[in-house]
Amino acid sequence: MKRIRVNKYNIVTAIIIIFLLYVIFFFTIKKNDNNNLLYNTKFIGHAFYGVDNIDYTNSKEAFFEGYDNGIKIMEVDFLFTSDKELILNHFWEDSVWESSNNFLNKKVMSKYTPMSLDDLLELMSYYKDVYIVIDTKESEYNNGNDLIDVYKEIINKTIEYDKNLLDRFIPQIYNFDSYKEINKLHKFKNNMFSIYKFSINNNPNLIKFITYYCLFYDIDSIVIPYEYIEYGIINKDTIEFIRSKNINVFINTINDKNIYNELINMGITGVYTDYLKEI
After folding, report:
1. Which of 49, 69, 190, 227 has the smallest set of CB atoms within 10 Å of its CB?
2. Which backbone phi and psi does 226 adopt, to 5 degrees?
């Protein structure tokens, strides 16, 4: 039998070529825009929306104010009460945890109706075109210990109430590790990556890395604080690069129409807002 001689240099060359083709493919592809819910979204309501020129209420009145102004995607703040009930609240005054009974039986800012996760699910079941972006400060209060617990509670209660509602929750991711942990619990259809905890100014290539991370893990959107735009840390070229991958760019939080128009001219998708509305 004739012995086949293998040229090891040809094998190495083939491996290098395959690797280079993979690199070229990865760095030139775009995110699949199927199910890209946020692609045409101009405004995301911040803490539902502003009501009576007051922001951060996460109240039932704020929900209806936003909905009546055409806001169908709303960011909501979740926190645990002292008895481990999930309620809609941005922060605890003086870091004092309240019981769910105390929180839900008094008015927000002495005027507005407080809400629990149960209340939110009820609204979502009735208003079927509303989507909720999940925000939580539990990682700041408890060194991250309760962040995953927030998602567990949302997932478990939603499945118990109506599992179809889970498709209308959108996690807002703050770091690489938490996305992986959340994804183990449930594969949400849409995700957003917020970069406000990253020091982009100290590492200008980090935003490209985050973009490729979102591309690789099929994350729909990147959320950028306005300060990064204002101080020139992120510019129009950066935004165009992100958008070239079919990844949405949202800026938070914008309530000035002139600034909004400037940002649109830079190529962003939309903004988080307390007061701007669909026209």
Report:
1. 227
2. -60, -30
Task: Using alpha carbons, select from 252, 255, 250, 245 the residue that is nearest to residue 268.
Answer: 250
Q: Which tokens belong to 185? A: 């619990």
Q: Are 68 and 140 in contact (CB under 8 A)?
A: no
| Three-state secondary-structure class, residue 209 | helix
52 versus 82: which is more confidently predicted?
52
Judged on CB neighbours under 10 Å (0-12, 13-18, 19+), 231 is exposed
199, 233 contact by CB (below 8 A): no
Given a cut of 90, is residue 22 above it in pLDDT?
no
CB 278 within 8 A of CB 69: yes
Average pLDDT over residues 1-14: 46
Burial call 14-37: b when 16+ CB within 10 Å, e when fewer: eeeeeeeeeeeeeeeeebeeeebb
Instruction: Name beta bridge partners: 54.
Output: 51
The amino acid at residue 63 is F
Task: Kindly report the pTM of this predicted structure.
Answer: 0.86
Query: d(Cα 79, Cα 81) in Å, to the nearest integer?
Result: 7
Q: What is the pLDDT of residue 216?
A: 94
pLDDT digits (tens, 9 = 90+) for 234-248: 999 999 999 999 999
Cα 90 from Cα 196, distance rounded (Å)? 16
Provide the 3-class DSSP secondary structure of residue 193: strand
Distance CA 217, CA 219 (A): 6
For the beta carbon of residue 249, count every other beta carbon within 10 angstroms: 23
